[in-house]
Amino acid sequence: MAWAPLLLAVLAHSSGSLVQAALTQPLSVSVSLGQTVRITCSGFNVNSSIGWYQQKAAGDPPVTVIYWNDKRPSGIPSRFSASKSGTTSTLTVTGVQDEDEAFYYCGGHSSSSSNTPTVTQVYFFGSGTQGTVLSQPKDPPTIHLFPPSPDELSTQSKATLVCLIGDFYPGAVQVTWMADGRTLSSGVETSRPQRQTNNQYMASSYLTLSASDWKSHETYACKVTHETGTIKKVLTRSECP
Q1: What is the pLDDT of residues 7-23, one digit of tens each?
Q2: Where is the Ig-like domain (predicted)?
């Protein structure tokens, strides 16, 4: 089982104080039922008070599982615990259950209040980690990279490169586009992974450029990071139709 990446954008919209910080979390972690899993978060100020938040599906309100570094709210199972050392916080789930499958975010909040902080009091979040309770062996993604069509280039003066990613498990990937070895950030759109009939996952990513930008680079690459490793597919413009 796996959940696609979920964003806390709804929270950022509801509170102007929420800021996405440069906190480092792993893209995904996976574990078999009943085992122990640990998720790390690093990069915050040593004096920050860190909490952990669980979100199971898009639109669901995030649930606080840890606050003030190592405190567990009432109603949260004792299998959830956390520790903080310097600028790294570690969430530990012991004896993982099916219902623990979710996205987990670390976040910084004020420790001045005597009450348990609410999610809207968090002033920065990490990027999030997808937690998967494994139901089958891990599989790396397959990648197919397609160039823009000659018709699109000639009639629309733009170029769309397509990267199709399939047959991966667990269902979390990070896609990076590169041109002549340099990372591109604009013109990129990546879909949320979808479950295939074989219980593996697929996703697609698109890079859209102007026709002149397309012609200004020779090599393009779609780099996919998955729990099983990183795979890169390269396309050479001069070899395209």
Answers
A1: 343 343 333 334 445 68
A2: 5-120, 141-236
Average per-residue pLDDT for the chain: 88
Nearest Cα neighbor of 133 from 169, 177, 176 is 169
Rounded Cα gap, residues 181 and 195, in angstroms: 31
Cα distance between residue 203 and residue 164, in whole Å: 6
Residues 103, 104, 106: CA angle, nearest 5 degrees: 150
Domains 9-133 and 142-239 share a fold: yes
Q: What is the pLDDT of residues 133-153, one digit of tens each?
A: 999 999 999 999 999 999 999
Bridge partners, 80 (sequence order): 93
Q: Which fold has domain 142-239?
A: Immunoglobulin-like (2.60.40)
pTM over 0.85: no
